[in-house]
Design goal:
The chain is an alpha+beta fold. It is about 30% helix and about 20% strand. The chain has 15 helices and 25 strands. It has a 16-stranded antiparallel beta sheet that branches. A three-stranded antiparallel beta sheet has the order 23-24-25. Strands 17-18 form a two-stranded antiparallel sheet. The longest helix is centred in the C-terminal third of the chain and has 19 residues. The chain is globular and about 75 Å long.
C-alpha cells in the first residue's frame, strides 16, 4: 500500500493517530515512526526493554527522534519489497526528499543495535530539521550528553547511545537539533547505535550498506513463503510483521511491540503486550507453519521447552522473551498516556492467571507443525505429556479465560473447548504420528470434556454461550468449529454465528463480548476486536457463505493503515485503530483467513477443523 497524506511542519502539536505509525524491527527490538518522520517509540536492546523514545505515551519531552521537512509537505511511504525497511517521500513546494529508515538486521547473533536514517534529495532543494531527545527509562532519565567528533554520545544509567551525523549539531534546551538543506542527488545519513554504558560504542558503519544488508535479510526470509493463493501480497505483508515480532535469538514471539495503547481513548484498558503469550504465539505459529515457515515453529518449540521447564502446575500463560517468569505490573505516573489514556503500565499481572485454553493452543500449534514436517523432539514431547497429565486433573476447574478477566473465575466455554483440543491433538499425535502415549486414556478424557461442554454451554436458544449457565455471548465461541470441536454446519454453530452477528457486531465488526453483560473486573468501553472479526470470516467460509465471508474480509483489509498494519481493535464509530500496535493476533488472523478463503487451498481453519 502506498498512500498520500498531508503533513504539517514538525512539532506542530497535531494528534498522531495509532494508524499514523509504521513498524521498524530487527527481529530483536522494534520502533514506531510516524508519517511526520518522528520515531516516538523505541525499546533497546529487546522488545521488552525500557524505551529510550517514549513520546508515544507522553509528549516530546519523553523522547523522540524526528527528521522531516521544515515546510509543509505531502507525504507517501512504503516498505521496500519483502522487508521492514521504510521509505518515506516528502514533497514540498521547493523539492522532494526520500527518508529511508531501518533497524539494522543481520545474522550476527550478538550484533550491535543500530537505527539508521538516510535522507536523499530527488528534486529541487528541501530545508530539513532534525530533533533528537534521548530519554532513557521510558522518558524518565535525561542522559548526560557530550559532543564528540562527528556526533554526540549520551549516557544514562546502564544505557548509552552514540549518534553519528554529517551535519552540525547544536543543543536546544534538553534536545539536540540540526538544520540542513538536501539538494537533488545529495544524501545525508545518520547512524544511532545503542550500547551498554559499561562498554565502548560499536564501530561506525556505511549507512547505505547497512540498509542494503537489512533489506536483503528481510527479502531472504520473506522469499521462503510457500503460499501462492488469493491475497498473497496481504499474507506476505502480515507474515513479515509476525517475523518482526519474533525474537531471533530466543525464539520468543511478543504479542505486540508496545504497551498501554488504549482499547478505548481515555479508558483504563491499557496493558503491556511486549511479552510472550503461549496463546498468541501458538496462533502465530499456525499461520507461519501453514505458509511454510517450519523453522520458526521449531525455534518457538525450543523456547517453550526452556520457558515451561519444571512443574506443569506452574506453567504460566506468558513469559518474558528469555522465558522470564516474574512480570510484575506497575504504573508509570510520569507518562500522561496516549491521548491522555491512563494509566501507563509495564509488566502484566495476568501472568499469574489460570487460563486453561493455553494448553490446547500449545498442543494444537506443535501438532500442526509436526504434520507440516517439523522433526519431533523427545524433550518437547515429554513436556507436552507432563502438561497433559496436569490438565487431566484440572480441566474441570474454573479459570480466568481467554480474555484475562480480572473478576471472578468461571467455567468458560472456550477454555473447556481448548482443553478438549489438547487431548484431541495428543490422541492424533499417537495415532497419526506414532508418538508414545496413552491414547486410550486421553480419548476418554476428550469425550468427557465434549459431553460436559455440550450439556452446560448451550442455552435455550441453542447457542454456545460465554460460560456454563450464562446467557452472555462471547466471540471466542467462533473458534468452536475452527478447531474441530463440532462441524461448522452443526445447528448450534449456525445459531451462534447468527446471534453474534445480531448482538455482538458494530457496523459489521465483532466485539469480544458485551462488557455491560459480562463483568470482566475492568469496566469501560472498548473497540471491535479484529481477531474475532476474522474468526467470523472463517466461520462463514466453513458454513458455505463464501460471498459474505469475502465481503467482510475485504472490509477488514480496508482498516489497515497505509503500510498494511493493524492494531488490536478498531473504533467503528470514530474510524480509528485502537490498542497495542501492530498486533500479532490481527496479522495472524489476516493471513489465516486469506488462506481459508482461497478456493482449492487447505487453510488453517480447514486443516484444524478436518473440513
Amino acid at each position: 500500500m502506498h498512500g498520500l497524506v498531508e503533513t504539517g511542519r514538525m512539532d506542530a502539536g497535531t494528534v498522531t493517530l495509532i494508524e499514523d505509525y509504521a513498524l521498524l524491527s530487527d527481529s530483536r527490538s522494534a520502533a514506531l515512526v510516524s508519517k511526520a518522520g518522528s520515531i516516538d517509540w523505541l525499546c533497546l536492546p529487546r522488545f521488552d526493554s525500557a524505551a529510550c523514545f517514549a513520546r508515544l505515551l507522553g509528549d516530546e519531552d519523553n523522547g523522540h527522534w524526528t527528521i522531516g521537512p521544515v515546510d509543509d509537505a505531502t507525504t507517501s511511504r512504503r516498505y521496500l519489497e519483502g522487508s521492514l525497511v521504510l521509505e518515506t517521500e516528502h514533497r514540498t513546494a521547493t523539492g522532494t526528499v526520500v527518508v529511508t529508515d531501518a533497524l539494522v538486521a543481520t545474522d550476527e547473533e550478538d550484533g550491535p543495535h543500530r537505527l539508521v536514517r538516510r535522507i536523499e534529495g530527488r528534486s529541487g532543494s528541501v530545508p530539513m530539521r532534525m530533533v533528537l531527545r534521548i530519554r532513557f527509562d521510558y522518558g524518565h532519565i535525561v542522559p548526560w550528553v557530550r559532543h564528540v567528533a562527528g556526533g554526540l554520545h549520551a549516557i544514562g544509567g546502564p544505557d548509552g547511545m552514540l549518534l553519528r551525523a554529517p551535519v552540525e549539531l547544536r543543543p536546544e534546551g534538553f534536545a539536540t537539533v540540526a538544520e540542513f538543506v538536501v539538494d537533488s542527488q545529495a544524501s545525508v545519513a545518520f547512524d544511532l547505535s545503542w550500547h551498554h554504558s559499561t562498554v565502548a560504542p560499536p564501530a561506525a558503519v556505511d549507512v547505505d550498506e547497512a540498509i542494503d544488508v537489512t533489506a536483503e535479510w528481510w527479502r531472504n526470509w520473506s522469499s521462503r513463503l510457500s503460499y501462492d493463493g488469493a491475497y498473497k501480497d496481504e499474507v506476505k505483508s502480515s507474515l513479515i510483521v509476525l517475523k518482526g515480532l519474533s525474537h531471533r535469538s530466543t525464539g520468543g514471539i511478543v504479542a505486540a511491540p508496545t504497551t498501554s495503547l488504549p482499547e478505548w481513548i481515555g479508558g483504563e484498558r491499557n496493558w503491556d503486550y511486549r511479552y510472550c503469550w503461549l496463546r498468541d504465539a501458538s496462533f502465530t505459529l499456525v499461520a507461519l507453519t501453514t505458509a511454510g515457515y517450519v523453522l520458526e515453529a521449531a525455534a518457538w518449540r525450543d523456547w517453550l521447552v526452556r520457558a515451561v521447564a519444571g512443574e506443569p502446575s506452574k506453567v504460566q500463560i506468558m513469559y518474558g522473551l528469555g522465558g522470564e517468569r516474574r512480570l510484575p505490573e506497575m504504573e508509570l505516573g510520569w507518562l500522561g498516556g496516549y491521548r491522555s489514556s491512563k494509566p501507563v503500565r509495564i509488566g502484566n499481572a495476568a501472568s499469574d492467571q489460570l487460563q486453561l485454553d493455553v494448553f490446547g493452543e500449545v498442543m494444537d500449534a506443535i501438532h500442526l507443525a509436526r504434520v507440516h514436517g517439523m522433526e519431533p523432539e523427545e524433550n518437547a514431547w515429554r513436556v507436552q505429556t507432563a502438561m497433559l497429565e496436569w490438565l487431566e486433573g484440572n480441566w474441570s476447574v474454573p479459570d480466568e479465560g481467554i480474555w484475562e478477566v480480572r473478576g471472578e473465575r468461571a467455567h468458560y466455554t472456550y477454555s473447556k473447548v481448548m482443553a478438549w483440543v489438547a487431548f484431541d491433538r495428543a490422541v492424533n499425535a499417537v495415532e497419526r504420528l506414532g508418538l508414545d502415549g496413552d491414547a486410550g486414556r486421553w480419548r476418554t478424557t476428550r469425550q468427557e470434556i465434549h459431553d460436559e461442554v455440550c450439556a452446560n454451554a448451550v442455552d435455550d436458544r441453542g447457542v454456545f454461550t460465554q460460560s456454563y449457565g450464562s446467557s452472555s455471548l462471547d466471540a471466542s465461541a467462533l473458534m468452536i468449529p475452527l478447531v474441530g470441536f463440532v462441524p461448522a454446519d452443526d445447528p448450534r454453530v449456525t445459531a451462534t454465528i447468527d446471534a453474534i452477528q445480531r448482538e455482538l457486531t458494530v457496523d459489521g465488526l465483532v466485539r469480544r463480548y458485551d462488557p455491560e453483560a459480562s463483568d470482566d473486573g475492568v469496566g469501560g468501553e472498548e473497540g471491535a476486536f479484529l481477531l474475532c472479526s476474522f474468526w467470523l470470516v472463517d466461520n462463514l467460509v466453513l458454513a458455505g457463505r463464501s460471498d459474505e465471508a469475502t465481503a467482510l474480509y475485504e472490509r477488514l483489509l480496508e482498516l489497515r493503515n497505509d503500510v498494511g498494519l493493524l492494531a488490536e481493535e478498531y473504533d467503528p464509530k470514530g474510524g480509528h485503530q485502537l490498542g497495542n500496535f501492530p498486533q500479532a493476533f490481527s496479522h495472524v488472523a489476516l493471513a489465516s483467513s486469506a488462506m481459508t478463503l482461497c478456493p482449492g487451498h487447505v487453510g488453517p481453519s480447514q486443516e484444524r477443523s478436518g473440513r
